[in-house]
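User: Is it possible to get a 3D structure for a protein together with its bound compound? The compound here is F0G. I've pasted both below.
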Amino acid sequence: MDLPYIEPYKIKTVESIQLSTPEQRKKWIEEASYNLFKLNSDQVIIDLITDSGTGSMSDKQWSEVMLGDESYAGSRSFLKLEKTVKDLTGFTHFIPTHQGRAAENVLFSALVKEGDFIPGNAHFDTTKGHIEYRKASAVDCTIDEAFDIAIDHPFKGNIDLQKLEAILQKYPKGKIPFVLMTITCNSAGGQPVSIENMRAVRALCNQYEIGFYIDAARFAENAYFIKTREEEFAEYSIKEIVKEIFSLADGMTMSAKKDGLVNMGGFIALNDPKVYESCSTFAIMYEGFVTYGGMSGRDMGALAQGLLEGVEFDYLESRIQQTAYLGKRLDAFDIPVLKPFGGHAVYIDAAKFVPEIPKEEYQAQSLAIELYIVAGIRGVEIGALLADRDPVTRENRFPKLEMVRLAIPRRTYTLSHMEYVAVAIKKVFDTRKEAKRGYSIKWEAPIMRHFTVQLEKN
Ligand code: F0G
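Assistant: Yes, that's possible. Here is the predicted structure of the complex:
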């Protein structure tokens, strides 16, 4: 008989959770214009809005906070982080930024121009935002299996090579600066990409003489899936897999708020000295001098340590198994969830959960609001609100999947919290037939509207 897995850590500090009633939450969400981003955290019981920057740091990371060197140029903390990133990834150049989208801003300033096309696997919304802001287009080449929640494919984040090659053939060389691969693929449900797929994409990029960059926010979780699902790598250590991944790319952008196990931070790492030079100029303009790039010395120290802890197998196993625990509990209740379960989050298929609500009335947002009112759980809509309007036609875009994402912060909640979430969702599921109307938009921003949108109940 196998022993169950355990979290490979003990809890040293606790933060209390404010409990509340459904009546209080009904009032609070109305005051927040039915936008979960506008709630105060004390109005939330279990906060699954994101796994980004919401995890717990270890005692060793907190020690790094005390050791932080706050020198403007060439600090010890910078050098420590630079060495860690170079050792871990094998890239030769490194620039810190204050978070992932800042890394995108700096790298894309150097590489993306008006009229360009950036193929990839379901680009994250800030990534798409930074591409579209430059009047370029993000082209989604994710495999079709990713859009069927029931298909059990081990690497649903993979790029469809035929779709990619069709794009590479369609546009002249100068129009495609690079392919961008997101690991794990957040927008497709936290699904991993295989090394086999990365190798094939690299080969196509070589053939068409274009760059290959990785959005690496959850690279360690992706490496865990490779170890456990891709036979060739079963005996590899996570660190060896990580090296293999990055050896295939020209560079990476990183939101360190995920697998860096810190609350704030990001970076770019790459090989081409010319791209580095160009990025350095933009980094200085947007982020700060190249040896801090928007981060304090103490934050860089904590990130250096976090990156090492983030690639420990035991940590990753408990992380991925906690997510799977919630997924399996929901599955056992016959709640429609995306399978296989992703690394950082469980995704509920809202279109199937509340089929009576018209899709024009934002099914996933309606479900997320109901879950908040019933149990104080804050998930996030990954559906039509997030998909936003087409930048040219200004028509609403309705994505293939209309989901609520329950993103699990790292090393923060216990299995009993997951159990609470599972039972709460079941409670909402039992009364789902009563939900017939959703919400309409009262006000929206011209880009990335979901953060600030104001809604009214229909
Ligand atoms: N890339 C991916 C794949 C992401 O998931 C995120 C952020 C970013 C880039 C941007 O990084 O937030 O540090 O600027 N994802 C968060 C989320 C916000 O909730 O999934 P950032």
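Residues 59-310 form a domain with the Aspartate Aminotransferase; domain 2 fold (CATH 3.40.640.10). The longest strand covers residues 93-97.
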